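Run log // design_07
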C-alpha cells in the first residue's frame, strides 16, 4: 500500500471513530428512569465512585421479582429530602408492604467528594449505623452538605451519595413531587407512649396526590413509582481502544511500493 493511500485510510478510520464519539453522548455512567405519577425522572448513577451502592441499587432494579415496582415515596420533608424504596403498593389500595431486603446491608461509601447537594440521590440508613443501608434511598431537595442546617456528609459517618438527577426536566419532576401536600398516615400512639403520631411509624410525612380531606386517604392518592428502568449503560471502551491500536499499528508499518 502506498504512503498516500495508507495516510488516507488512517484519516478515514480516525474520522469515523471521532464522528461516532462526537455523535454519541459522553455518558460514562448508568442512567435509570423513575416512572413516577407526575412524570419520568432520569438519574445518573455513579458507577465508578460508589460501585457497591450502585450494584446494590441495580440489583433491586433488575431483580426478576420487581421489588421496586409501585414503590412509594413515603417521606417528604420540604427543604430536606424525598424518600422512597422501602414500601410498595398495588397502585389502587392502601395495602402497603415492605420491599424485601435482597442483598443484606451495604458498606458505607460516603465521600466528601460526593456531597449531599440538591438533586443527588443517597442511601438511607437505619438508626446510627453507617453500614446499615439496604433498599431505601432519598433525594436531596436542597444542599444538605453543611452549608445549611443539615450536614448529611458527616452525620452518622455520612450518607452515601450514589447518583444525581440527570437533567433539568427531571429536576422539575423532583421538585413537583416534593411540592405535593403531605398527610400524617401513622397510627395514633397507644396511651402512655412518649411518641407523637408523626414519630409513630414511617408515614408521618406521607406525600399525597389529588387528596381530598373530606374523603380521606385513598390508595389512588399514594405517590408511587410504577417502575425503575435502565435507559443507558456505559459503552465498553474496547471498540475505541482496539480501533486506536489498529490505526497505530498501520501507521507504524513500513510503506510498501505501489
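design_07 sequence
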Amino acid at each position: 500500500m502506498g504512503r498516500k493511500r495508507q495516510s488516507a485510510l488512517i484519516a478515514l478510520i480516525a474520522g469515523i471513530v471521532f464522528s461516532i464519539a462526537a455523535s454519541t453522548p459522553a455518558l460514562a455512567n448508568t442512567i435509570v428512569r423513575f416512572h413516577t405519577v407526575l412524570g419520568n425522572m432520569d438519574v445518573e448513577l455513579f458507577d465508578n465512585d460508589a460501585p457497591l451502592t450502585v450494584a446494590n441499587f441495580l440489583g433491586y432494579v433488575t431483580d426478576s421479582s420487581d421489588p421496586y415496582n409501585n414503590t412509594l415515596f413515603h417521606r417528604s420533608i420540604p427543604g430536606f429530602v424525598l424518600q422512597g424504596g422501602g414500601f410498595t403498593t398495588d397502585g389502587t389500595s392502601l395495602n402497603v408492604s415492605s420491599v424485601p431486603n435482597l442483598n443484606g446491608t451495604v458498606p458505607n461509601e460516603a465521600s466528601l467528594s460526593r456531597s449531599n447537594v440538591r438533586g443527588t440521590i443517597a442511601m438511607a440508613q437505619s438508626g446510627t449505623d453507617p453500614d446499615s443501608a439496604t433498599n431505601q434511598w432519598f433525594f436531596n431537595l436542597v444542599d444538605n452538605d453543611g452549608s445549611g442546617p443539615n450536614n448529611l456528609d458527616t452525620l452518622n459517618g455520612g450518607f452515601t451519595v450514589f447518583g444525581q438527577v440527570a437533567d433539568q426536566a427531571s429536576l422539575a419532576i423532583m421538585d413537583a413531587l416534593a411540592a405535593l401536600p403531605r398527610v400524617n398516615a401513622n397510627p395514633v400512639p397507644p396511651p402512655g407512649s412518649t411518641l407523637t403520631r408523626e414519630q409513630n411509624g414511617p408515614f408521618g410525612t406521607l406525600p399525597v396526590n389529588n387528596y381530598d380531606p373530606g374523603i380521606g386517604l385513598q390508595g389512588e392518592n399514594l405517590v408511587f413509582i410504577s417502575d425503575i428502568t435502565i435507559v443507558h449503560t456505559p459503552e465498553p471502551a474496547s471498540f475505541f481502544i482496539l480501533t486506536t491500536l489498529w490505526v497505530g499499528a498501520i501507521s507504524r508499518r513500513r510503506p510498501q511500493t505501489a
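The chain has two domains: 1-24+235-258, 27-233.
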